[in-house]
Amino acid sequence: MAGPDTSLHREIAQLSAKLDLLQTDVGEIKRAMREGEREAADSRRHLHEAVGGLGERMVLAERNIEVLEHAVGVIRPFADELERWKQRGIGAAFVLTFLGGLVGAGLTAFWSKLVAVLPLPRGWT
Fold it and tell me: Torsion angle, CA of 83/88/91/93, rounded to 10 degrees?
């Protein structure tokens, strides 16, 4: 009967070794899962912090937009008035240029008639 007992002890020892290996694998799996859960928690925490900061930045941007809209509303009448004066200046420059051309043409015509009527010495024409 020593043979079957030895065989039984050997099988029990093999099963015990396999059980030890399974326990080691389960322990490593648990450790890996805990590590993964910890990393996921850290990642979620960072994500929540980023989203919270984004909300604060959005509120700040909305306030800045309101301030800019108010400033544009205050400046717009002045800018419109400047634009009207610019257009008037361009129109005035055009009229002055036209009048200058008329005066130049009139003076040239007057000078040519004056020279034709007056007896001037040679070389003055």
Answer: -100
User: How many CB atoms are closer than 10 A to CB 30?
Assistant: 10
Confidence class for position 87, pLDDT limits 50, 70, 90: very high
Contact 11/19 with Cβ under 8 angstroms? no
Looking at residue 117, its amino acid is V
DSSP 120: P
Flag whether the pTM goes above 0.70. Answer: no
pLDDT at position 53 is 83
Token representation of residue 99: 């009048």
Output the six-digit token pair for 111.
């000078």
- Look at 125 and 85; give whichever has higher pLDDT: 85
Half-sphere exposure of 27 (CA within 13 A, CB side): 6
Alpha-carbon separation of residue 122 from 52, 111, 125 (angstroms)? 96, 16, 7
Domain spans, the chain: 7-125
Widest pairwise Cα distance in the chain: 164
